[in-house]
Amino acid sequence: MNQTTFADRVSAWSEGHGTSMILPWEIDSVVSFRGTLSTSPDFASGEEVLQDILVGMLDKGTKLHTKLEISTLLEDCGASIRFSSSSLSIRFEAKCLKSDLDLVLGLINEQLLYPALDEREFELLKNRFVANIQRMESDTGARSSDFLSRQIYSPNHPRYVWPSKDLLEKVHKASVLDVRSYWEAQVGLNDFAIVAVGDVADRQPADILSRISAGLGAKEIGVRNYDLAQLSEPGAFDHIEIADRSNVDVKMGHGIEILKRSPDYLPLYLGVFVLGGNFSSRLMSTIRDRDGLTYGIRSGLSGVDRQYAGAWITSVTLSKDKLDQGIAATTAEISAFFNEKTPDRLLEPCKTTLIGSYQIQLSTTTGLAATLLSNFEDGHPVERIDTYPTEIQLISAIDVDAAILKHLNIDRLNIVSAGTR
Q1: What would the mean pLDDT of 44-51 be, rounded to a whole number?
Q2: I need a labelling partner for 301 at 20 to 30 A (CA). Which of 56, 282, 353, 414 fits?
Q3: Given strand 18-24, what is the order of strands in its sheet?
Q4: Structure pTM?
């Protein structure tokens, strides 16, 4: 008898610009769900700030219920709703009892459709944004990452991080009218999707979609280009001096012209995981365990999406007296890794780790919902929830080496350090 797969249990419904998926699961009376709607902020003009502020205000009351009333409704039934901003989308997630599902779906619809966008809440949120930006000024990890982003990405790219001065100016300049205009232009039935997992065997995906998207019309959000920076000085080294820091955070990386659904993506992801993905990786076993130069070093792909390219980033924390030695040892080890063939003895344990982590994620309703939604956002079919482990398992060392040779180049690395020298 064939074993039932996750995809076999999923019921889906699409209508217009909206999609709903439900996955009945062996949990009594509880439902977890995740959702998304596409946006198209103009990053070069700072519209991501407006989106971040808007998302922060969606749970601050509507034209029908105050913030306190919504909070009381959720607390009384033990439910939760959370909104978040993710570059080209606004996401929401919730968990509730089966008996309160319609209430929670209705509240999310209300928060998207009738946000109060109150002036007082807006000013409070702006002040929190300003405080957070100012706090990051002394964070060595954030400063080195942000500076490197400006070496890798153009200002119109979702992963470009503006200098604090410019970001503060954008926040101060924003008005509640700007946020309202952004909401009117961007929030609608644009690639709208919801995934519900749990005690939903008696529900229809069309009904869930209609309840949460009622009144939301599609918006003309357009398609933008998201460029990597054209580097004039690949291999540059920059230091950001931050006083009174015992350690220095170093980031090194370069852009990679690869999208999430590229055939090279998973082999490259696996290869970089072998290099620096966890505590048993090549860089950990050499730079930390063998050389004793750091407590932590990682390497991975960052910012790769279905619609825009990302980067390969290596991060290492070093004491200031070992900064030059640590950078030299790290680049030398990466270079040696590139010049060698990836051995199966390193590849297979990493495959096992990635597959095991994935299977753990699928052991909860929230993990299942998140995975189904992520697959939808990346343009994968529902069946991908079952086939992903096999995709990982079939990657060969030849595939990994070819992807590394094609996309990664140590001579293109830009290096940024932040701390006290």
Answers
A1: 93
A2: 56
A3: 11-15, 18-24, 192-198, 30-38, 89-97, 80-86
A4: 0.94
